[in-house]
């Protein structure tokens, strides 16, 4: 993880450094701000490599951004960009682009080497994440991204939900999990290309991406409903909008079945509660994690740790 902030630069030089070194050199854009506002400028970003892709989180006070033809010529990146707006909102426009605004939590996609303009909608400035994924290896034969101008991902669609889940997997992943990132990055890219009509939903690569997205979301839904003792394949399949058989097929391609995944996650949560909530009784921990009975909790934790829940907690005291 690489991080940088304008706090490392003299206030008189912060915006000029950001404009010339960071905006042009790193992001390949032209940054503009009135001279009288430059002394108060603040910007920071982090960069994490995900295979050949890069995940950037950027926060900055307001300024104008434009990716011009000259910027593209100087810093072509030939990448698919997936943006997530965090806080505030942003406006996008350009000669070939229908104007649109993105609000907190929304996603947008584009091809890196097309011109655009953007400004924050509010005084709190920019706060967004961007994943840049090199085009090589992610687009189907014969496909072109030259018309993939910035466009928001429609809310309340199944594809947006899958895209968000895969995006969160990458954002939440630790550096130790970076080796597992490329398949998720590819699935994220292909879901975005399905949404933009570049990839046929029934193609082999698209179907693999949708399976990865459904599996990501299934695991997220399991965690969300973990305390529910009635958690079942039927419940999760219904929330995903797929059949129970399809759900089981998703887990058959992994190291753990649906039921094994639920058990592992419940045990992980129970260990955390035993460590962090000494005021809870063993029974309260068991039922907070969705175990159907205290006897089941004792049996499963003992099989995992070779000790009772009480002994596990005492060992940590």
Written description of the protein model:
- With 317 residues, the protein is of the alpha+beta class.
- The protein has three domains: 1-152, Jelly Rolls (Sandwich); 154-226 and 245-250, no CATH class; 261-316, Homeodomain-like (Arc Repressor Mutant, subunit A).
- 42% of the residues lie in helices and 21% in strands.
- It has helices at 14-27, 69-74, 158-172, 181-195, 204-224, 233-240, 244-252, 258-276, 282-288, 294-305, 309-316, and strands at 2-5, 30-32, 43-50, 53-60, 64-67, 79-85, 89-94, 97-103, 107-111, 116-120, 126-134, 151-152.
- The strands form two sheets. The chain has a seven-stranded antiparallel beta sheet with strand order 1-3-4-11-6-9-12, sandwiched between helices. The chain has a five-stranded antiparallel beta sheet with strand order 2-5-10-7-8.
- Strand 7 and strand 8 form a beta hairpin.
- Helix 5 crosses helix 6 (233-240) and helix 6 crosses helix 7.
- The radius of gyration is 23 Å and the shape is globular.
- It starts with a strand and ends with a helix.
- 33% of the residues are buried.
- The model has no long low-confidence stretch (mean pLDDT 93).
- It comes from Bradyrhizobium septentrionale.
- Residues 216-315 form the HTH araC/xylS-type domain.
- This is Helix-turn-helix domain-containing protein.
- Keywords: DNA-binding, Transcription, Transcription regulation.
């Amino acid at each position: 993880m690489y991080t940088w902030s304008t706090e490392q630069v003299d206030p008189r030089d912060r915006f000029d450094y950001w404009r010339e070194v960071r905006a042009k050199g790193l992001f390949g854009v032209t940054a503009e701000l009135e001279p009288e506002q430059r002394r108060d400028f603040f910007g920071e970003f982090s960069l994490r490599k995900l295979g050949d892709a890069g995940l950037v989180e950027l926060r900055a006070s307001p300024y104008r951004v434009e990716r011009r033809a000259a910027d593209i010529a100087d810093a072509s990146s030939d990448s698919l960009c997936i943006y997530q707006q965090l806080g505030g909102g942003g406006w996008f426009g350009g000669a070939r682009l229908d104007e649109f605004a993105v609000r907190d939590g929304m996603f947008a996609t584009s091809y890196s080497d097309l011109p655009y303009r953007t400004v924050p909608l509010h005084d709190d400035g920019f706060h967004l994440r961007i994943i840049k994924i090199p085009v090589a290896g992610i687009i189907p034969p014969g496909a072109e991204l030259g018309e993939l101008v910035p466009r928001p991902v429609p809310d309340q669609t199944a594809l947006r939900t899958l895209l968000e889940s895969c995006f969160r997997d990458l954002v939440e992943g630790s550096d130790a999990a970076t080796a597992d990132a490329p398949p998720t990055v590819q699935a994220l890219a292909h879901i975005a290309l399905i949404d933009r009509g570049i990839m046929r939903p029934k193609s082999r690569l698209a179907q693999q991406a949708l399976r990865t997205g459904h599996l990501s979301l299934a695991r997220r839904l399991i965690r969300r409903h973990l305390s529910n003792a009635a958690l079942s394949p039927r419940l999760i399949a219904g929330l995903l909008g797929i059949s129970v058989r399809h759900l089981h097929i998703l887990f058959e391609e992994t190291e753990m079945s649906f039921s094994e995944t639920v058990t592992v996650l419940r045990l992980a949560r129970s260990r955390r509660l035993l460590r962090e909530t000494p005021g809870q009784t063993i029974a309260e921990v068991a039922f907070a994690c969705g175990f159907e009975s205290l006897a089941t909790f004792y049996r499963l934790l003992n099989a995992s740790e070779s000790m009772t829940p009480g002994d596990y907690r005492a060992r940590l005291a």
